[in-house]
Predict the structure.
Amino acid sequence: MNFFEYRNGELYAEDISIKELVQEFDTPLYVYSAKTLRRHYEAFDSAFEGTRHMTCFSVKANSNICVLKLLGQMGAGVDIVSGGELFRALKAGIDPQKIVYSGVGKREHEIREALLSNILMFNVESRQELERINQVASEMEVQARISLRINPDVDPQTHPYISTGLKKNKFGLELEQAWESYKLARELSNIEPVGIDCHIGSQLTSVEPFLEALERIKSFYGRLQELGLDIKYLDLGGGLGITYDQEEPPHPAEFGRAVKESLKDTDLTLILEPGRVIAGNAGIMVTRVLYTKGTPSKNFVIVDAAMNDLMRPSLYGSYHRIEPVQEKSGRLYTADVVGPICETGDFLAQGRELPRLEQDDLLAVHSAGAYGFTMASQYNSRPRPAEVLVDNDQAVLARRREVYFDLLQLEEQCF
Ligand code: LLP
């Protein structure tokens, strides 16, 4: 459920018409709905009511500081994967004791920054990383709280690029290695093992893989008791899917019920790292039709947004619903919606049924609030779009549109 709706044939974000936003902010434009973000956060977080837990929004899904602030004000923590995300989170006022740091390749300076900020814990993905964190922590004369990320070898049945918990994936430690690493962690002077972690993939549309992973983690946790470690946290990662097209992922309440049931006999504090389920359907990308053209074999709708603005269709073949901002009736026809970039892979949709579109029509590309702007680039020297956050009848420019000067700002003078 989100707050992008048609009123008298015109698409609105909450109480503001998209057309009005475009008049002010131009296209391509990311539009986020604050009410939807709050609703999604609330629905997710309340699914774990009655159990000690922490909802740590996954910053990589949408790292706009206004979005982070909004979620932080609702009590959210965050899951970060880089020093840059830590910087954003702290600037957004997130409590460091609600920050968990995941990722396979943390650099030394990033570890130092996280220790300086006194984050809750690192989710460690290799033995060498554990040793590196210990070394940095001992130089700083602090204790580093860690959990080890277990790779439970569970098939999340999602796109191969976004499954992470299979043994062939680069993520985490397989059980025996994890066991050895916990033993090592116990010996390391500046490491305090406080948690156990996994994240099996993204855009999961059923609870079963989560439950399977939990079973393995629980039995491993049982074994861990032998080591006498004081494990307080179980971090289940993120991954709950959303509806882009026909998918029917479990509602967070169903997910919450199943997870709570599975963990009812433990007294661990549960950590969750949702990204997409909070932000995905809280944002759209608005684009303008530049040209339409038909060839003997195909119709093309050429728009002013491209793969650099929204990469998901090109990278994963992902489906994003596309609708005219001004509702149109009449016969549908089939077209590819493509951008101005010089690559055949530059498309927002292929073989899509659409009403007849004309030059200057505005289109809403739905479900673009997660992994949309955060994956945008300047490829083809295209300044990145603006981001706007709507709250009832108020719109704030959450990030200004880049201008040509931004393209060159960081480049040295050559002569
Ligand atoms: N925690 C960890 C350790 C992760 O790696 C991820 C996502 C999440 C949490 C959040 O997962 P979510 O709840 O959003 O599914 N660019 C891809 C998605 C990559 C996800 C990477 N990790 C896409 O556009 O579909």
Observations:
- The chain has two domains: 4-32+280-408, 34-276.
- The first strand starts at residue 4 and ends at 7.
- Residues 383 and 407 are 7 Å apart (CA to CA).
- The chain has a mean pLDDT of 96.
